[in-house]
Amino acid sequence: MLLIDDDVDDRMIFGEILKELVPDIIYNEAINGEDALTKLESNLIPDIIFLDLNMPRVDGKQFLAEIQKMDHLKHIPIIIYSTSSHESDRRETQELGAAYFLTKPNSLKELSNILTGILHQQPL
C-alpha cells in the first residue's frame, strides 16, 4: 500500500492505524506526487494507492494524470484521501481514473472503520 500525502501527521496516523489492522502489511509513504512517481519508477508497485489532492510540486490531480499514462501502473486502484468534499473534485478525479473519493474522517475510529472496510474488499 502507498499513501501519498504531504501532511506528516496524517501519514503517521494513517500508518499507525493501518499497522494495527494488518501488522504484516508492506506500507510505503510519499510526501507528494513527484516523490510517489519517483518511487513507482524504481519498481515500487503497490496493490492500492491512497492519494491526497492538495500537495506541493505534483498534486493529486497531476499525479492521477501521470499514472494513467503508465500502462504498468494505471491498473492500480487509487483512492482519493483528501480534506476536500467538493463535488467538482470528486467528479474531476473520477474522470482522471480515481476508483473512490474519501474525505478524511474527523476521528481515528472512523478512519479505522473505513480502512477495515477497504481492506476487506481489496486483496493485499
Write the layout of secondary structure elements.
Elements: E1 2-4, H1 8-21, E2 28-30, H2 33-41, E3 49-51, H3 60-67, E4 78-82, H4 87-95, E5 100-103, H5 108-121
Parallel strand pairs: 1-2, 1-3, 3-4, 4-5
What gross morphology would you assign? globular
Number of helices: 5
Strand order of the largest sheet: 2-1-3-4-5
Structural class: alpha/beta
Q: List how many beta strands DSSP finds.
A: 5
- Helical residues, percent: 40-55%
What is the level 1 CATH name? Alpha Beta
Low-confidence stretches: none
Can you tell me the CATH superfamily? Response regulator
Strand content: 5-15%
Q: What is the level-2 CATH architecture name?
A: 3-Layer(aba) Sandwich
Major beta-sheet overview:
5 strands, parallel
Number of domains: 1
Q: Return Rg in Å.
A: 13 Å
| Cα separation of the termini | 8 Å
What's the CATH topology name? Rossmann fold
Mean pLDDT: 92
Report on the structure:
With 124 residues, this protein is of the alpha/beta class. It has a single domain (2-106), classed as Rossmann fold (3-Layer(aba) Sandwich). It has five helices and five strands. The radius of gyration is 13 Å and the shape is globular. The mean pLDDT is 92.
